[in-house]
Design goal:
Elements lengths: L2 H29 L4 H25 L8 H27 L3 H8 L2 H11 L10 H22 L15 H9 L1 H35 L3 H23 L3 H4 L4 H29 L1 H5 L2 H16 L5 H56 L1
Helix pairs in contact: 1-11, 1-13, 2-3, 2-9, 2-11, 3-8, 3-9, 4-8, 4-13, 5-6, 5-8, 5-14, 6-8, 6-14
Length: 363
């Protein structure tokens, strides 16, 4: 593997490991009584502060990007969907389910994004080309896997218990076990809702990137706006001082970890990987998170794996790769068409030049 391929690969593996850690630290923090809204407030506030140096040195030091009211409004929509909506819903869903289910359901993002892109007329639906068939079938398989995972458990898979014992994690998971059993379906539905919010953000963010190509500035503003939004809501709903306390080590660790590692650092690594290898390359690594979290959930939490969870996860990952394959093939087909048009145009110009030269020679 060449160095140009190795560093993006290493960056994306680090991102998936970082997100896996977030699922566990956040789950433990919420099991200790931390409210999801409060966690998002701390996460966005810390992320905003952590991103300021990068924003200054990479975008503001030499040439300040021009910010208009329309751009600010679009960034506000990004904060409502991609930060506040997505993260609050995800943490609420995670608190009422498990890290494995939360990670599995996030893999429906490409399928949900495709459906919303069709609704907003950014994508077209067809069945003539193989790329169109792959996207359509992959979306159906993804949604079917998500429904199966959400509403069907089935028997447990006979995997031996882990020999690793993390007493604190097992104690906290046992305390919330009763609530999780009764709210598992609710938690799954809320995680799916977070995927819809995230997909809406992707569509809006694409518009922002065209109008305002300053990713560090837009992300910093998005995190700051989300901090204000969540702080206002959380102050009303969770106004007691103990709700905001970070005296518990796991709450402090979770707030710092999600803000620095999963927002600021992850954004930089993902942006680097997209720049080097493209957005499709980044998406391919999503199922790795599910594998990591499933193994760690079994090893650290003693989580049981159900047949419904396993089959649903396999369907989601299979549908994910079908959608990604369709998108990749469609992109290659578009490039071939553009190349053909460019070659035809060049050939026509060359022919015209030759005809002009011949006519001049005759004259």
């Amino acid at each position: 593997m060449a160095l140009g391929d190795f560093f993006p690969f290493l960056a994306m593996v680090a991102v998936q490991l970082g997100y896996a850690g977030m699922n566990f630290t956040s789950k433990l923090a919420m099991d200790s009584g931390m409210k999801p809204l409060v966690l998002v407030v701390y996460r966005q506030m810390i992320a905003s502060v952590a991103l300021i140096p990068f924003t200054y040195f990479f975008e503001w030091k030499e040439d300040k990007p021009k910010i208009t009211l329309l751009i600010l409004f679009d960034i506000l929509l990004c904060s409502l969907t991609g930060a506040t909506g997505n993260q609050v819903l995800y943490f609420v869903g995670l608190a009422n389910s498990s890290p494995t289910i939360g990670c599995a359901l996030t893999n429906i993002l490409p399928a949900v994004t495709f459906v919303l892109a069709v609704i907003f007329r950014q994508e077209s639906v067809g069945i003539k080309k193989r790329s169109e068939q792959a996207k359509l079938i992959g979306t159906v398989v993804c949604v079917g896997g998500a429904m199966l995972l959400s509403f069907y458990n089935g028997p447990t898979i006979g995997i031996p218990d882990s020999s690793i014992h993390w007493d604190y994690a097992q104690k906290m998971s046992k305390q919330s076990a009763g609530n999780n059993k009764s709210n598992m379906v609710f938690g799954s539905i809320i995680v799916i809702a977070s995927a819809v919010a995230y997909s809406l953000w992707v569509i809006i963010q694409a518009r922002v990137n065209k109008k305002f190509p300053a990713p560090y500035t837009s992300t910093t503003l998005m995190c700051f706006m989300s901090t204000v939004q969540c702080a206002v809501i959380a102050t009303i709903t969770d106004h007691k001082k103990p709700d905001w306390s970070l005296s518990s080590p796991i709450r402090l660790i979770s707030a710092l970890y999600t803000g620095i590692v999963c927002s600021a650092l992850a954004f930089l690594l993902v942006a680097y990987s997209i720049q080097q290898k493209g957005a499709l390359y980044v998406s391919v690594f999503s199922p790795m998170l599910l594998v990591i979290v499933t193994i760690l959930s079994w090893a650290l939490f003693g989580e049981k794996l159900f047949v419904g969870t396993a089959i649903g996860s396999i369907l989601i990952v299979g549908g994910l790769y079908a959608v990604l394959w369709g998108k990749d093939k469609e992109k290659k087909e578009d490039n071939q068409i553009q190349e053909f048009v460019a070659n035809t145009t060049n050939l026509s110009k060359t022919t015209e030049d030759l005809e002009m030269q011949q006519s001049k020679a005759k004259a």
